[in-house]
Structure formats: structure tokens, C-alpha cells
Amino acid sequence: MPPSEPRTPIASLNLEEQRVLAEALFTSIGDGAIATDEFGKITRINPTALKLLGYTEREMIGAWFPKKIVSIHENGDPVSLIDRPITRAFLTGKTIVEKTYYRKKNGQTIPVSITVSPIMLSGKPVGAIEVFRDITIEYEIDRMKSDFISLASHQLRTPLSAIKTYSHMLLDGYMGDITAPQKKSLRTIVSAANRMNELISTLLNITRIESGNVTVTLKNVDVEKLAEEVNKEHSLAASDKDITLSLHCSGKKTTVHTDALLFKEVLGNLVSNAIKYTPEGGKVALGIKNRRYDVLFSVTDSGMGIPKYSQEQIFTKFFRAHNVVKQETSGTGLGLYLVKGLVDALGGKIWFESSETKGTIFYVTLSKTGAVSAPAGDEEV
Ligand code: ADP
């Protein structure tokens, strides 16, 4: 019989009817569901959870949740009790949403997305309900997507490098004299090819970061030299807009134990944005401050700034603020997402201060030893 509109409101059901309804809901839910008492002992488990974990109801009821449901990290290490979402839900009284891996009874592991909600009574947790689902297929699709981007990017690079090489040869006169309009067109081709090359690098790096495959090779890096190289690479873009691009270093010679290539990508992205979002005749300055435990990098511009209401989303993938979209500046909203991922991979910190129409300062700190950054108030040396 097709479902018809309910005639009896739930509130007017008697206790027994409410219990049967709750039981039916719990049992028929498409995701795994587990309820515990205030001590974390399993009081109820639905058929989907039993099927996903490979246990019988008898094996589960009365068992201590954190012991019976084994949660592990991607590398196979167990998640410590204090880090388990159920513990945190009990301690904070808040719903915790997370991804982890569960070990089934047969030893196999499955990636799961879980939501644990504490059941609160007079401000105290008296139990918890966890709902979880198997996300193996989502993980597989993600991996296939990353493989595809990676393959496509590599394949795009080869024809692109031919375009760049031959355009440069034509520009440099290796194939005979060229006219001024031809030169102008060739410059446009080179600059478009460079942009495409940057986009491919960004996509490849994002794929590496998202799949956890970014290789960090730590070496002692002369960051002043690196910053000089970054500025040199962007000098043409700056002079095209009549922007003064400068470098300011304070303190003695600065060496940081980091990955030079990845960090260059970070500074390059920040400087490129600063130039892109600063009007003609403005200023962009790259600063390096040598402090006791870390080095503070800053990229300051006198540009259009980031509107207050957009500031929280600025490191989100594909996000572009309204003020830059309105001015029809080109961009993908991937640069800062990548920069944040890279700074995290290098154990650093990134933040910014910005005021619309006045300008922006992006700050990055890197610990000198390659470890996690020192506190923000680190003193200069
Ligand atoms: P893209 O520059 O390709 O749009 P990003 O991820 O590098 O992407 O930056 C995201 C957004 O952050 C930009 O679209 C812009 O709105 C804002 N933004 C980044 N850097 C600056 C800056 N220096 N000045 C003003 N806005 C900026």
C-alpha cells in the first residue's frame, strides 16, 4: 500500500508505540548505527553496522565501543582513545564528524565517514549515537580523479613545451627577422603558454597534496637567494603594470631547513597574486625577517584588498572574492588552496591582513629547523 499522510502525530503516540517507532527507525536506517550508554558500552546496533563490520549482534551488545570498534589511521596505526570521536563527543558534548578507517572482524579495513552525537540530559552525556557509512567507493573515485588529472597534466606538458621552445626561437630571431606586430603576437603566445604551464603545475601539486603524495625534501636553503629568484621571475609582470617590486631582508643571512622547490612555489604564488591584484603604479614588497626560532616572510601589496566578508573563505578551493571577479581579472581560485596545502606540508603557518582598496599582507612562518613553527611573537635576531 502506498504511504499515506500520517493521521496520528508522533507526540500523541503512547510510550510503547514511540519505542517501536524508534526501533524501526534505528533498524531500517541505511547507514550503520550504534548506540552506547554513558560508559561507552554498546546498547544497540543496527543490521547495516553489523554487516559492515562483520560481527553478530551478540558479539557487540555490552562490548566497550572503543575496544570493539577498532579505528585506525591510514598508515595502520591505531587511533588513540583520546582522539576517538566518541571520546571527544563525550568530553565536549558536541557532535563530531570525521573520516577514519574501521577494522572489520576478518581483519580487513574500510574507510568510513562517521558522525557521533552525544545524548545529553541536563547538560550531561548519558550516551552516544554513532552513524557511519562505508566510503570505499568515494575514495576510489577520488583516486581515479587524481590519476586522471595527473596523467592529463603530464600529457599536456609535452606539446606545451614545444609551443614555448619554438615561440622563443622565433622571438629571439633564430628563424629570421620578425616584424613588430609578429613580436607582439609571439609574446602573447609565450605568456599564454606560461600561464597554462603554471596551471598544470598547480593541478599536479594539488593532486599530490590531496592524495598525500607530496615529497618534501629538506635541505638548508638560502631564503634570500630564493626570494631574489622569485622576484626576478616576476619582474616582467610587475614592470608591465609599472609596479615597484622590492625585497627587504632584516637580520643576518637567513638559512631555513625546508624544501626549496615547494617553498618557491609558495612565495611565487603570493607574489604573483600581489602583482595581479594591485593596480598599475602600485607597490609589492617581499619581506624576510630572521627571528630566533623561525623566519617570517611577508608579501605586502598596495592593491585592491580582500573584502572582510570573503576573508574566511580565501584558502578554499576555487574561491575568488567578488571584487576581483567584478574586475574580470583571470584566475582559478586554486593558488591559495595550494599555498595553504604546501605551507602545511612544510610545517609552517600562513595568515593575512587585508583592507579593501588599501592592500594586503600575506605572512608565512617557517621554522629554521624544518619543524613546526614557533609562536607568532617570536623575536627578531
Ligand atoms: P586566483 O588568484 O587564481 O583567483 P587564488 O587562490 O590565488 O586564486 O586566490 C583566491 C582569491 O583570493 C583571489 O581570487 C582573490 O579574490 C583573493 N586574493 C588572493 N591574493 C590577493 C591579493 N594579494 N590581493 C587581493 N585579493 C587577493
Could you say which structural class the secondary elements and strand pairing correspond to?
Answer: alpha+beta
Low-confidence stretches: 372-377
Task: Please give the domain count.
Answer: 3
User: How helical, in percent, are the residues?
Assistant: 40-55%
How would you describe what is shown here?
The structure is a single chain. This protein is of the alpha+beta class and 381 residues long. It has three domains: 13-134, PAS domain (Beta-Lactamase, 2-Layer Sandwich); 139-210; 219-367, 2-Layer Sandwich (Heat Shock Protein 90). It contains eleven helices and 13 strands. The chain has helices at 15-28, 47-53, 57-60, 65-68, 85-92, 136-171, 180-210, 223-240, 260-276, 322-326, 335-345, and strands spanning 32-37, 42-45, 70-72, 96-103, 109-121, 124-134, 219-222, 244-250, 255-258, 283-290, 294-301, 349-355, 359-367. Strands 2-1-6-5-4-3 form a six-stranded antiparallel β-sheet, with helices on both faces. Strands 8-10-11-13-12 form a five-stranded mixed β-sheet, covered by helices on one side. Strand 4 and strand 5 (109-121) form a beta hairpin. Helix 6 (136-171) runs antiparallel to helix 7 (180-210), helix 8 runs parallel beside helix 9 and helix 9 (260-276) packs antiparallel against helix 11. The longest helix is centred in the middle third of the chain and has 36 residues, at 136-171. The structure holds adenosine-5'-diphosphate. Adenosine-5'-diphosphate binds at residues 273-274, 277, 301, 303-306, 314, 319-321, 324, 331-337, 360.
